[in-house]
C-alpha cells in the first residue's frame, strides 16, 4: 500500500487510508470544520492520485471506524459476500471506477459486485468521479422496491408529498395533500414531519392520511416522520403506519445521538411488516445528509462523504423502500454553497444506488446558505438525468414548518415533462381515472385541490 | 359570455388589482405608449413616474390564482388553514410569474438579513458596549460556529472594563443569523424588558448591554464567566424563513459556563410583529428573569422545578 506521491516535484505523504479518503474529497466546508480537508487544491489531487492506486482490499482492511468499536462497521463488513469480494479485492479504486463506467458493465453486473463491496469502497470510487461520471454511472443502476406500490422502475420519476405545518393543523396539512395529489405528487409517499412528536398526534395524522388515501383509493403509502419509537407505539395502538421512518447516521455514536440502535430498527421493521398498512416487503424509510455525524461529534476523524456512504451500508440491512439524502438542510458550516450542495447531492445519490438503495433526494437549502431556487432546480434536473427515484414536493418549494427551501410540485411535473418520465404505474392510472392526466400529460384539473372537496 | 365566465373574469380582474397589476396603471401605461406611437417618438417607453404596488404586501393566505377551481369557496377556506403557498396555480408545469416573484422577494429579504450587518449606528444610538467574537468576516461566521462563541483576550478585557461586574442580569444583543431581526425588535424590546423588571425591583442599565457582532448563542457562556452575572440573556437574530426574516429569540441561562448543556438554556422564540411582538416578549422575558433569579435555575432544570411546584 503506497500512501505518498509526487505532484509537480513536491512530495505528498499521507498517514492513513482515512486521511487519503478525507483529503481526496471535493471541497466541503464540513471537512474544513472537522480539520480533515486537504490544505490546498494540489494536495487534494495528490490524495486522489494515491486513492486511485489503492486496492479495494486496502480500503476493506481500513474502515474509518474500527470493527470492534462500531456497530455500523460490523453491519457493513458482516454483510459482504466474501467470494465476490475475493474476485475484486485486487482492483484499484481506479479500476473500480472504470469498470462501473465501462459500456459493457450493466445493471445486473453491478448488482452482483455490490454484494462484495463496503461503504468505504463506494465512497472511495465516488471521490474519483466527476459530476458527469456520477450522473451516467447512477443512471445505469436501477433499484426497485415495493411497499404498496413499486418505486424505481425505469422510466418513472416519483415524489414525496411534504405538506408540513407550523402547528400540525390537520386541515392545513390536508389542503397541501389535496393540491399535491392533483399535480401528481405523492406517488413515493405522502409524508409529514410533525411539529408535535407525541404518539397521540402521530396517530391522529396517520389516521387522517389513511382515511383520505382509502376514500380516494390512491395507490401509494403514508408516513409520519416522528422518532421510530413513537411510530412503534403508534403501530401498537393500531395506527396505519405505511412506511416506518427514521433519521440514521454512519456511526454507532451518531445513531446513539439519534436515539436508535440496529436492533431497534429491526424490531420496528418487523412490527411494520406485521402490523403496518403497506404490504411490503420494503417498509422502511430513512433520511441522511452529509455532516450529521460531525454535528454529533461522531465522525471519528473521517470526512462527511465517507460517513454518509456508511449510512447507506447501514440502511441496506433493513432493505428500505426509500432513503432520502436531505442534502442542503444542515447549513453552510457543512456544505457552504450551491456548488457543494449540488456535488453532495450527486455523490449521495450515486453512492446509495451503488449499494442497492432506492435513493431520493431532498434538493434543498437553508436561507443562510449561498444558494437559491435556481441552484435547487439545477440539481433537480441533474438528478432527473441520473435516474433518481424521487424528489420532494413541498408547496411552492417553501417548507413553512422547517423553514427551508426545497422543491415544489412544479419541479417533479417539470422533470417528468423534460425527460418523458412517468409517475409510478398504478398512481398514473389513478391520475388518468381522476382526469388529472391524459396520456401522460397534466389536464386542466391538475393543480386544483378543490376537486377533492364535496 | 355566461354568468360563470363573467364571474371568473371579474374575479380575475380583482386578483390582478390586489396582486399589484392594477388595471388603472395598465391603462395609464398603454395610453402613454399609444401617444408615443401616435406622435412618432422613439419606440422606447416613457417612464410615467407611477409606482407599482408592493407585491410583498399581498396576504399570501388570501392570494388565489387558480383560474377555474372546482370549488372556489372551499379552496379558499382550506387554504386559510395554512401559511403554505397553495392555490398559486401554474404556467404549464412551471409557476405563475406573480408567485415566483413573491418567492424570490421573500428569499431575497431572508438572504439580506443573513448576509448584511446590523446598522452600525444602532448599538451606538442605544449606547451598548460594542464587541465582536473571534470571527473576522461574515463568511467565517457562517462556516465556523466555534469562532462565533469565543472572544479574544483583548475583547475579554474590553468587556471586563466596559460593564458593571457581578450583575444580577447581564443583557446581550447578538446579530446571529438575522440583522433585520435585531434592527426590527431591539429598540422596542430593551425598554420593554426594563419596564417589566421594575415590577420585580430588578433592572439593568442600557450602557451595560453588550452588543456582539458575529454572535452564536454560546458566546453568552463566556460573557457569563467574564462578568460573573447571575443570569445572562442574549437577544439574537434567528435563521430567517420566507414567512419572516425578522424573527428574534432570547436565550436565557442561569450562571452560564463554557461547555454547559444546551438544555439548560431557556428559549423565548418567534419574537417579531407577526409572532410574539417585541413589547409583549419584553414583559414575558422580565418575568422569566425574575423566576430564574429566585429559583437559581434555567432550562430543563427550571421546568423540572416548576413542575415540582416550587
Main attributes of the structure:
heterodimer; A: 454 residues; alpha/beta; Annexin V, domain 1; TIM Barrel; eight-stranded parallel sheet; two-stranded antiparallel ribbon; 21 helices; 46% helix; 12% strand; B: 310 residues; DNA Binding (I), subunit A; Rossmann fold; 2 domains; six-stranded mixed sheet; elongated
Care to give the gist of this entry?
The complex is a heterodimer of chains A (454) and B (310). By secondary structure, chain A is an alpha/beta fold.
Walk me through this protein's architecture.
The complex is a heterodimer of chains A (454) and B (310). Chain A has helices at 17-23, 29-34, 41-53, 56-60, 71-78, 82-88, 93-101, 107-113, 119-128, 131-139, 170-182, 199-215, 228-236, 252-257, 262-275, 292-295, 304-316, 338-354, 373-385, 409-419, 425-433; strands at 4-7, 10-13, 145-146, 150-151, 158-162, 189-192, 222-224, 244-247, 284-288, 322-326, 359-362, 390-393, 398-399, 404-405, 437-438, 441-442. With 454 residues, chain A is an alpha/beta fold. In chain A, helix 7 packs across helix 9, helix 18 (338-354) packs parallel to helix 19 and helix 19 crosses helix 20. Chain B has two domains: 3-42 and 56-115, Orthogonal Bundle (DNA Binding (I), subunit A); 121-307, Rossmann fold (3-Layer(aba) Sandwich), CATH 3.40.50. In chain B, helix 8 packs across helix 10 (278-295). In chain B, 39% of the residues are buried. The interface between A and B is large, with 49 and 44 residues.
The number of distinct β-strands of chain B equals 6
Which word captures the global form of chain A?
Answer: globular
Strand content of chain A: 5-15%
What is the residue-mean pLDDT of chain B, rounded to a whole number? Answer: 90
Oligomer: heterodimer
Strand order of the largest sheet of chain B: 1-3-2-4-5-6
The share of residues in helices of chain A is 40-55%
Q: Round the mean pLDDT of chain A to the nearest integer and report it.
A: 97
What is the tally of beta strands of chain A? 16
CATH homology group of the largest domain in chain B? Ethanolamine ammonia-lyase light chain (EutC)
CATH architecture of the largest domain in chain A, by name, is: Alpha-Beta Barrel
**Radius of gyration of chain B, CA atoms, in whole angstroms:** 26 Å
